[in-house]
Protein 1
Amino acid sequence: MFYNIQQYGGQQAIITKERQLTYIELQQLADSYLFTSENKELIVLLGDNEVEIVAAYIAALQARHAVMLLSPALNRELLIQIVSNYRPRWIVAINNSEEIQLQGYVQRNKMLERLEDVRTAIHPELAVLLSTSGTTGSHKFVRLSYRNLQANAQSIADYLELNQTERAILNLPLSYSYGLSILNSHLQVGASVLLTGESIIAKSFWSFVQEQQATSLPGVPFTYQMLQRVGFMKMDLPHLKTLTQAGGRLDQRLVQLFGEYARDNNKRFYVMYGQTEAAPRISYVPSDRLLEKPSTIGIAIPGGQLSLDPESNELIYYGENVMLGYAESLEDLAKGDVCNGVLHTGDVATVDEDGYYTITGRMKRFVKLFGLRINLDEVERKLEALLAQPVACTGNDDKLIVVTESEVLVDAIKQHVQELYKLHPTAFRVKVLEQIPRFANGKINYSALKDE
Amino acid sequence: MNNEQKLRNIFAEALQININLVVDDLTYNSIPEWDSIAHMTLISEIDNAFDTMLDTDDVLDMSSFAKAKEILAKYDVQF
């Protein structure tokens, strides 16, 4: 298992600006977290990219407790709700534990401990709980087993050809599945992780990269936009051999640009696809084929399989890394595997003659009314063009719902929808909300919209 | 409007903060509004407004309002 780290002894495990820990020292630090209990408990880790969080994470896994990783940027109210909903036995909150005074918890050693003795039933295979929506989140978590994490760590190590000489930058949050997978896959092979919370636009980040001779750098699409702007391609980084990208579709122009840069500079650039539900890696484009297949999500990771639903073209993934299921309450932690290794990704895709997949849209943005498939994004676009006002569409398979922020538009919307889609008035509804719920980046928050 | 005022407006706009908060020792990451996303917006607004194309080092170095003026001076923007 990737978390049985003692075997790597004196090899460097975690390096930060302030300290360097060998695998033995990391194990010693993990041993200072005394998660002693006769029962399987839930532990909340609140904090990103800190050595102490890594140590507590390893300690929790070794003791076969379940770990919930939360972002320290999480809204206070939501944190209180999650804690009262899931009743963790321990909370590890580095740096700010004094500030976090939670009712029913006391500070004991390096963590907060629940005062009340309640027995919680947790499935023996449950290892990690990750939020599907980051800091804006809900109470919904993905349940990952030890086997899920191990399978994914091994697959990633295989296709990225990781070995002990790697020195991977890890600046993505550990509470984010992509960040966590970098840690797991590097622990798996006894490599070194360069842990930092700094962004690539901080000058000190680049001196860390250079001094520590980082060999790989991960990024989400926005990271690559920034890398381009800060002139990454002109930097002299002889040790940096691998770039990875995940966390959303990267603009094809940037895929091309970084692909060519990698080819010309004897580096490897991996475009990858995944979902937290798969711990998270699902597919990757082998770096030597990227320029041939720049718009694809590539092929399944080692040990996994992809296929398309013959009717809907939904991308379906099969593998040992597919989650046990979701959890929305404490009771759900007792549940076993409800997915059986099959993940319906919710993405619609095509596959080419070489077996490379390309995502063409999202399943859930369709409603099927009277056998007619209606693309919600398209309805939105058409209505916005006609009205010059924002609208948001949602719905289920018996009703289309159009949300507007303006009461006076209701009749016009009804008329347009009837004309455009020849829909019977009972098949759709126009709703007025004071504000269409949005994420900080301005994108519509459809899950919140659905709850309205 | 002089360049100092122009730059202050750009900062207030890009970081979405009150213009009174834009002072010399306003530094990157010292307020939640000035994160990496806002920083990239800031750089692109500065490039547009002053018709510059800031170098890598300058993009990374621009860690305070005072520093921004110092850097822009190299591009012949007078303060």
Protein 2
Amino acid sequence: MRVDFVKAVETTLDRDADALFITGDLGFNALEAFVVKFGKRFINAGVAEQNMIGLAAGLALIGMRPWVYSIAPFVSYRCLEQIRNDVCLHRLPVRIVGNGGGYTYGIMGSSHHALEDLAVLKALPNMQLLFPCANDQVAAAVALMSELMGPSYLRLAVSAFNTERTPLSEHPVTLTRSYATRADRSKPGLTVIGAGHAVHVALRALASHGLDRENVDVFGIARFPFLLSEDSELMASVLSTKNVIFIEEHYAAGGMGESLKFALPPLSGFSLMSASYRPDQRYGSAAFHMKQDQLTPDALVSLVQACLRAS
Amino acid sequence: MSEPLKSVARAALAIRRQFLRMHFGARSGHIGSGLSAIDILACLYGTWLRQHDQFILSKGHSASALYATLHHFGMLSDAELSAYYQDDAFLPAHPAPRGLSAISVATGSLGHGLPIAAGMAYGYSNLRATDSRVACLLSDGECNEGSTWEAALFASHHRLINLTVLIDANGIQAFGRTEEVLALEPFAKKWQAFGFEVRECNGHDYDALNAALAAPASDRPRCIIARTVKGKGVSFMENTVDWHYWPMNEAQYQQAISELDQCERELPA
């Protein structure tokens, strides 16, 4: 997603002379061209995230629109109070970008995983969260953020995503994508919803694990606060199946699933597949962590079949 | 003392009166650290800040001193000031976000002001065609915060000569004396080592403060360490930790005001 992001944000900086880019010393082999092209509109703030967010707030207070980039855990936890006090409470157009959401930094270890970023940021006033489902949605998310006059956070995933699948539709405002629809609406069905890039678990299941043979609608959501009154396709599915499986690469506590369950009318079923910390936690690649947490296409298909059998 | 500085001295006295009236009326604390900052605020607003400059009160617990200063210089109305410490208003103990046009930044958690000030100073000097300056007032205890030093590194690296850091160095923080809690000395050398041009002065001496503020810009950001007395101007409040917290009772308020009356009689004509 980083390549797509760099390309999209470059377009934004080209169009908006008051936009600028701040990095927390990250972006090797990706941002070098910005140094020359944007001159003083490119700042490497060094390894100093608290100052980086404060700087961005100061710049925004005098009319600039800064993009602030680091890896997801560094740009959301260390400087949380700066994001809260200096950016959100002042409702400033500071666009925070966290690369490596979820487990996508894999073998780099727990310091580099971001499994609570959406939880801590979604509670902040005026904050908008964007978490693209796929590489080809990053540009739309960046374009949307560049129009916002308040704070926002973009959660990127470090992955090539070789399971890219053309969505059947994408809502222009909510960015919600439909990836598959039920074959038979007269039979019990299920609504499978992935938060951001976690939808790839479902896409892989559709491609090669038999999910396409089940009676499911598959959606990817990419924005919080939800705009469910706009999301007519998603809501039609949920109101029809009354049974949801939600997948997120994030802890359950404070995650998007928890918020969505609260926002939806009462359903007959709402199952959550999320990341979890365990007493015997082991470390490895992103794929290892997904497997350790049962965030796999096989686990999804089994859950879908169990839910359908029970309904 | 020059005529403008006599005017600053009179302003500082009036601000102290207003400040004490506000705290007595509201039964509010944080008196000592407000009194230590008032002479600095009076100098800044009386002689140095221009319409297009920015001031950030990083030591947000001195908000009431800033409210009284802004009121004295006509930037806060009587009606606005009367809402100090009241419900349903914009003047809490620490500055509110998006509350008053005269206060652009809400503070209260320490270590936030200097990064914001550095961002403004960077923007003014590199991205906007303006000679706007930025002043940021810190407490000495606030220099315990790592974010303050992160911002100092940044300001120095980018040679933000339009940035002036002022430190209300009253030597006392929330639970004790600064040197006993987390020693800062040699304080000036620390700021020098971070690349600042440092001046130290008596933070209650208007000539010295004004000279430090008026010194020509160099090629570095500057830091003015204003050595102050916590509770300055009210004898029984001076140099004590207690008056970081206590509100005044009637007798204490009357004594404080009588000391200011004495001060006024001693002002140079």
